[in-house]
Amino acid sequence: MGNMSFQDQQKHVRVPYKLGICVNLDYPKDKILGIVEKTIKDAKDQRKKAEKTHKCKLRTSYRQAQLGLYDAYLKIWDTRLKNKRMTWEKIATKLYPDRREAPHMVIERYKACKELIEGGYVDIK
């Protein structure tokens, strides 16, 4: 992790947020469901333990992470739409006062949002 201090490294804890389960279909349904439920419970318990150990809140799903990113895209898009004369640096300062997001990051998120809005990710023939 480069030049990060030990405390900074603790903030970047990676634990699985998805669980893959291999099921033996020769077992009866009740036994399969019991095994699956126990496996899910154990995985959630491990996540809770990691949260306590590292004193952080783990993201609960990829979808929630994506929704947070889309929310950021739209905030940047709306701010730019309302204030066309506002510089990227001022938009970054306005939307991220505590983190001082770099203007180039705001520009990249704006471009990604533009592609989503204009259909750049969908190729319809």
What does this protein structure show overall?
The protein is mainly alpha-helical and 125 residues long. The chain has two domains: 16-54; 62-118. The protein has five helices and no strands. The termini are far apart. The model is unreliable at 1-11 (pLDDT under 50).
Structure in a nutshell:
The chain is mostly helical and 125 residues long. Helices cover 62% and strands 0% of the residues. It is built from five helices and no strands.
Strand-helix topology:
Blueprint: H1 6-11, H2 29-54, H3 62-82, H4 88-95, H5 103-118
SSE topology string = HHHHH
Share of helical residues: 55-70%
The profile of the biggest β sheet is: none
Could you tell me the number of beta strands?
0
Regions with pLDDT < 50 over 5+ consecutive residues? 1-11
Strand percentage: under 5%
Rg result: 21 Å
Shape: elongated
The number of helical segments is: 5
Tally of domains: 2
Main structural class: mainly alpha
Mean pLDDT: 76
Distance between the termini: 44 Å
